[in-house]
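Notes on consecutive records. When two proteins share a document, each keeps its own sequence and its own token line. Never mix them. Below: protein one.
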Amino acid sequence: MKYFNREIEVFNMSALDLFASAMGAFMIVAVLLFPYYMNVSEAESRVQVAQRQLDQAQAANAMARADAKKARGERDKAEADAQAKRKAQDDAKAKRDKVAAGNARIKSAVNGCEARKSAIQVGNLDLVFTIDTTLSMDKDINFLATEITGIVRVLEKVVNELRIGVVAYRDVDMSDPSSYVSTASQLLAMTPSGLSQIIRYIEGLNVAGGRSCAEAVERGLETALNLPWRTDARRQIVVIGDARAHKENWPKSFSQADNFAAAPTPSRLATIYRAHPSGGCKVNPDDPRFFRELATRGNGEYVDRTGSFSESVLLSVLKKW
């Protein structure tokens, strides 16, 4: 009887069982893990989609920020342009109002002259502006050049024949030794040609500074008094300045005014004072006091110039004789 080797058979059966068991285990694991694997892949896909959407959103946000910044810039520029236009409109309106106010004052002065014409002795008039031409008087010189045409038009309403001259004075202690102390134009009839010459003369006056605050007012008056005045015309000097004469020359200035007012030909001296604090020359109470006393001695009008230049001149000239 033949016997089989059982050990081998047992071993072979065990190997097959082990293989089958391993294969079964693998299948079980695969079945269990397959859904998880699928979920991981789907999640990664979703993450990628979400990342793309995030990138797109960030790009869109950056573009939106850039557009917003550009819009703010355009808005700010539009607001600045609008503000500049409003300011230009306001400035233009202010200028129009100023011109209108000046015209109204001149018209009022003309109307006043017409109303008083019968009470004013109409005749000939020689008028001399004696003006300080140091640094602080620059604007007043420009005002005189700009407004003298209107002044002449008003005076022609009450004067038969009008002549005008201009005297410019400074001081004896000018920084430039070659600078004049006083100089004058001719006394010219106010024809169109004469008026043009006077305007050019005033426009040609240059301001310059001296070493002191007081000025040589008496030298300006001396030049004015020596002009060729007519004997058949009323005579008027209008001193325009912002600084007194030197104290030692006050008596001479007042004496000049006294003598001018006492002349046989009707004559008077008026003053227009305008405070111009500048640099080291502060407003001094002696300045208006000097100009007020000078007008009193000259039997003329003292005007503290707070209104328009034309108004100040007309107030000083149109005082009843």
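Protein two starts on the next line and is unrelated to protein one.
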Amino acid sequence: MKPKEIPHEILFCNAKTRDGTPCRNHPLKGKTRCKLHGGMSTGAKTPEGKERQRLAILKDGQYTREAQEKRKMFTDFHKACMALIMQMSVIEN
């Protein structure tokens, strides 16, 4: 059977290079990535490793729930202030 006929078999690594082009290496058997792009990795196994991996995704904390709530509070406060300013300008004129 040819590799193209087997749907689960991927011909090239699923990663992208630094310049944005797809990696041209072949993936490891049963994997979607080559050995250079994490094909040999089995992922985190311990709870500590999984927690470290989860925290590593948050690079700057901009998208945490707490940060989003703070931005929403600021936006609501800003809208209320602008509405008050508009009311005051209408009353003066």
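For the record: The chain is about 40% helix and 0% strand.
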